[in-house]
Amino acid sequence: MRAVLADLSTQRYLLTAAAQKLPRGAGKNAGWSRGGVLRLTEEATEPKLPHALGWVRLRPELSAICGSDVGLAHAKLSMVLSAYYIESQQIPGHEFVAVVDQTGPGVTRLKEGDRVAVDVVISCAQRGFDPVCRNCAAGMPNVCERFDQPGISGCGAPSLGFALVPGGGWAEMVMAHESQCFPIGKMPSKRAVLTEPASVALHAALHWQGNGERAVVIGPGAIGLLTVAALRRLHPDLDIAVLSPNEFGSDWAMKVGANRALPSGPAAVEALAAEGGGRVLRPRMTKIPLLEQGVDLVVDCVGTPDTIDLGMHIVRPKGMLVLAGTAGRQEVDWSLVWKRELTVQGTTDPGPEPKFGGKRTSEQMVEWLGDPSYPVDGLVTHVFDLTEWKPAIETASKGSGASAVRVAMRPNPDLQLVGD
User: Do the beta carbons of residue 350 and residue 202 sit within 8 Å?
Assistant: First the structure.
């Protein structure tokens, strides 16, 4: 089976990480060069359905490259989280739309040929554990306490796309449980492939209870833009500003529902005061002014020390800062969390949502993506065949520098993309 394989052995990972520090970007492509963490193989093992009820084998139709995949390619991962991602060899790809290729015993909702979007999280139920852990029992499988225990799934990770046995979307085949799959009918491929990141964005937006009038989203990447779209659908009258470093991101922010796009960095404080009111305070010996009477919600979809720091400077006392950007070690002055009594909420994998009666985020998002008015058309800016994986990853790495929002690959070019 053809697949892009991630080899996270210590030698390859350290070589890739060290290459990122070479002068003038000389090693920026090391992750997908000889000796790096990624390579294409024609000999990956096809996933075999486990001896358990409800499993299906899928053929990915379109698979996207996430920011965490770019982090993998550049060896910029949190070593703390390696406790959950225990496999040194993985098949990436956790954002994909697929066609059912084979159904195992006990499958009742799907048949061969069905097109599906996939909730990639594998929790106690799919791993075959009984009784389930306390979080799964409480309806929160997205924070399952057994993500490091494969069980019958064979998945040594929280989700598909980070393990070898079930595989991921960057391969000709991948395995999933029927409970993870949502039929999508004739939904356009480039909308359906956004189900996972759009679910992450919706889950991030739902952490806020809507107690306020002003919100800021930091970062106009795919997650940031999808967060704006989700906030707009949830709160039609909310004033949403997006902090963007360039015109490309600003244009996209307006397309998906922002009221305005403002400059990123310290200039954002002055701009927010001018646009929506508030007083600007200037602490001594620091670069960023404070916005007093600031915004009610900040969703940071970048996750660097600078953006986290900026978020705390612009959110009002008792407001919420949602961290939806890449996880990692951050050196940040957290003093404003104490002084302003801020709520700082981390977020990643989606799950059942109380607002929607316990419906899973992915299921709700499939419904929204099926609505042509949901403003996500065009977010998949580039499509490559799987054999073109190197230029695909390079394009995704460049981001707005390559006019890219989401880059996707076709693992099975014989599967016609719907809507093209």
Answer: yes
Paired tokens of 46: 């096809």
d(CA 199, CA 206): 10
Task: DSSP letter for 159, please.
Answer: B
Task: Say if CB 285 and CB 223 are below 8 A apart.
Answer: no
Q: Is 113 left (phi over 0), alpha (psi -120 to 50) or beta?
A: left
User: Which residues in 128-155 are b (16+ Cβ under 10 Å) and which e?
Assistant: ebeebbebbeeeebbbbebbeebbebbb
> Do 98 and 409 touch, CB atoms closer than 8 A?
no
Look at strands 315-323 and 343-346 and give their pairing. parallel
What backbone phi and psi angles, to 5 degrees, belong to 353?
Answer: -115, 120
Q: Say if CB 331 and CB 305 are below 8 A apart.
A: yes
pLDDT in tens, 94-140: 999 999 999 999 999 999 999 999 999 999 999 999 999 999 999 99
Q: 224, 234, 342, 229: which is closest to 291 by C-alpha?
A: 342
- Which residue type sits at 383? V
- CA dihedral defined by 65, 66, 69, 75, rounded to 10 degrees? 130
How does pLDDT run across 252-300, given as a tens digit for each residue? Answer: 999 999 999 999 999 999 999 998 888 999 999 999 999 999 999 999 9
Is the pTM above the cut of 0.85? Answer: yes
